[in-house]
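[Q] Does anyone have a clean structure-token version of this?
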Amino acid sequence: MPDQHTRCPACRAIGAPSNYCTTCGSPLRARPCRECGASVPAGARFCGLCGASATDGSPRSETPKATLPWTVAAVGAVALAAILIVLMRRDQASTAAAAQSTAAEPAAVAEAPPDISSMSPRERFDRLYNRIMRAAESGDEATVTRFTPMALMAYAQLPDIDADARYHAALLKVHTGDADGARALADTILTKNPSHLFGYLIRGTVARWQKDEGALASSYTAFLSHYDAEIKAGRSEYGEHSRAIEEFRQAALKKKPANAASVQ
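[A] Here you go.
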């Protein structure tokens, strides 16, 4: 049996007599070798006779315990590498898609105009007008600037010009900053038909753009005074521009609430 006070040969801790150190668990007395049976002193790691390991577990068990952290680290590194590869491939795919989208944008901007050589003058004008309006709504000023002169040239070649064509031409002039030209077209519409809503809509649009509150209020008043009769007339051009007419009407009603009851 160990003495009353025993010092551990492994950690040098002093403790009560026991077979094993209460601090580190090392044996405190000699024990037989598992391989050859020879006595192995306390604290010895190997048998002095056969060289077998004197620690708990077989010699073969030391290697997996010692290499376990490195094995885990290796597996973790492989997993991380796989994740990085996936992310890199995903980024490369996103970059390629963005590059294709970017490459396609100039082609869309530089899209050639439609072949209008076989169209009638009115078809040419309507086709160009529609394209310019779509570009204006999407903020594509380059297309507006490019095709507006062509559209106005097509308008000048019209053999017969109605209120709808004049309204379209006026909007094109507003987009190019030609306020006087737009007002002139409004005057022409109203000269031919003093109650036509397009005339007041054009005048109001120019006045709003120029922040001319007096002209805008006058356009609202005249528009509302003719609205009911003109809508009942069922003019075909009003159907195509019903949204613009209704938006202008609602704006006029907000400015002229006293007139609301008479135009509902």
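[Q] Thanks! Anything notable?
[A] The chain has three domains: 1-56, 57-87, 161-263.
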